[in-house]
Hints:
The structure is a single chain. By secondary structure, the protein is mainly α. It starts with 9 loop residues before the first helix and ends with a helix. It contains 14 helices and no strands. Residues 1-14 have low confidence and may be disordered. The protein is 83% helix and 0% strand. Helix 1 (10-47) runs antiparallel to helix 3 (57-76), helix 1 runs antiparallel to helix 5 and helix 6 runs antiparallel to helix 11 (249-295).
Amino acid sequence: xxxxxxxxxxxxxxxxxxxxxxxxxxxxxxxxxxxxxxxxxxxxxxxxxxxxxxxxxxxxxxxxxxxxxxxxxxxxxxxxxxxxxxxxxxxxxxxxxxxxxxxxxxxxxxxxxxxxxxxxxxxxxxxxxxxxxxxxxxxxxxxxxxxxxxxxxxxxxxxxxxxxxxxxxxxxxxxxxxxxxxxxxxxxxxxxxxxxxxxxxxxxxxxxxxxxxxxxxxxxxxxxxxxxxxxxxxxxxxxxxxxxxxxxxxxxxxxxxxxxxxxxxxxxxxxxxxxxxxxxxxxxxxxxxxxxxxxxxxxxxxxxxxxxxxxxxxxxxxxxxxxxxxxxxxxxxxxxxxxxxxxxxxxxxxxxxxxxxxxxxxxxxxxxxxxxxxxxxxxxxxxxxxxxxxxxx
Length: 393
């Protein structure tokens, strides 16, 4: 094992640690913008004079753009130097947000969310690949895990910040502030990245050719199934807490913060494990999600058991992000950023499948069946992961 990445010089490797920190900080802003709209929906509905369900289009438009347009942007910009591409992406992301704040109109905001969705996929996938390239091969997964810390922190802060910001400063000012933070992140990221970090080693057609690999398609199907399992229950976690534990809204918020802290621990563990074997790490995550789904109906029996279930759930939830991203990117080293963007795409599709399944189960059987739905889909993911291991052997 060499002491530095073969793609760049030793001096670039030494600067890699600061660059990865910059990626994580930028990722927290990018993900915060994605999810903060959930907490802003009532304010958007009121201020933009649209119904609440139409305001919800801003959430769906972002996710669909990330899933469909994001990989296309990543493929087209595959041979752009990240020192130019990543700051430009953050500048577009932040600038679009400022435009939405200055022109408070529903259709303008919807267009901005479509642009930002495509940029998110490009930024996360290229930043993850750059982080891998800026460290030694035996610590590549840990570098992706460090970037993922920003993703976790952004997701944790989104809902409470959105609810607070809508009441205190207004959704438009909050969105503008996040836009300016993205512009600052663009400047910092450019300053920390070395020049000449060419990540794609093949042409556009060569990168797109990874979709002809049956093993790649199997990996993408596995990521989709894992995220469908996760969001069949996680999308309704507040309902589960209120029904099983009968907690107040304030206590539920504290529990969700604990869920996020457990996620940081799970992210660190999965990153270290994925450096040794990302396929087996994914299988363990699938098994953990299956077990958690079976255990969810016993929430409320005893506070120690409740704490253990929620802690393991939070850890497995975050571990799935880094395990899937690393596993898919390592499958196609000649087009790792494009592979990472495809993983983000299918994960968004998985969320889009899992959340409605959870909703149907909730409406038909009640909250106690959400864990069963999660366990059932996770069992299919576990089977796919074992098939993947067999395929590799």
